[in-house]
Specification:
Elements: H1 3-16, H2 21-28, H3 32-40, H4 48-58, H5 62-69, H6 90-109, E1 114-115, E2 118-119, H7 122-147
Antiparallel strand pairs: 1-2
Helix pairs in contact: 1-3, 6-7
C-alpha cells in the first residue's frame, strides 16, 4: 500500500459519515492538522494508537483500518518493524567473525594475553573475546550510521 491509499480510505470513511475534518478531530482526539496530512498523503500511515482513536470515532473495525494502513497482513499477522538502516547484515556478521578470529589468533600466538606476565585463564580469554566482539559490532554500527548516505536511511 502506498502512503496516499490510507489517506483516501480515511477521507472516504469521513465523508460517508458526513463529518468534517474538525468534527472527526474532536471525536477522535487526533488533531485536525494531522488528519488533513494523512488524507493528503503527505505523511506515512499513522501509528497504531492514532488508528485506534480514528477507528473508534468512525465506528470502523480497528483490524480493518490496521490492514488498510499496512500493519496487518492478509493472514492477520502484525507486520514486523523493519530493522534500522544501521543494523548489521549477515555480511557484516561474517566480517566481524573473521576480524575477531584474526585478532584472537594474533593475541594467542604472540602470547599477548597475559596479565602481570601470567597467562590468562580460559574464562578471562572468553571474556576478552566477548569484549572485542562487542567493540567490533559497535564500531561497525557507528560506521554505518556515520557513512550511510541520507537517501539510504529510513
Amino acid at each position: 500500500m502506498n502512503v496516499s491509499d490510507f489517506g483516501v480510505y480515511l477521507r472516504k470513511l469521513r465523508e460517508e459519515r458526513e463529518l468534517g475534518v474538525n468534527q472527526l478531530a474532536t471525536m477522535s482526539g487526533v488533531s485536525n492538522a494531522q488528519i488533513s496530512r494523512i488524507e493528503k498523503g503527505s505523511r506515512n500511515a499513522p501509528k497504531p494508537e492514532t488508528i485506534e482513536k480514528l477507528s473508534k470515532a468512525l465506528k470502523v473495525p480497528y483490524e480493518e483500518m490496521m490492514s488498510v494502513a499496512g500493519y496487518i497482513k492478509d493472514d492477520h499477522q502484525v507486520k514486523e518493524d523493519k530493522p534500522p538502516y544501521y543494523a548489521l547484515s549477515p555480511s557484516d556478521e561474517l566480517d566481524i567473525a573473521k576480524e575477531l578470529e584474526k585478532i584472537m589468533q594474533n593475541l594467542e600466538s604472540n602470547e599477548a594475553l597475559t596479565f602481570y606476565n601470567e597467562p590468562m585463564d580460559e574464562e578471562t580469554k572468553r571474556l576478552m573475546q566477548i569484549s572485542v566482539e562487542n567493540s567490533l559490532r559497535i564500531a561497525k554500527e557507528m560506521a554505518k550510521k556515520k557513512f550511510t548516505p541520507k537517501k539510504f536511511r529510513d
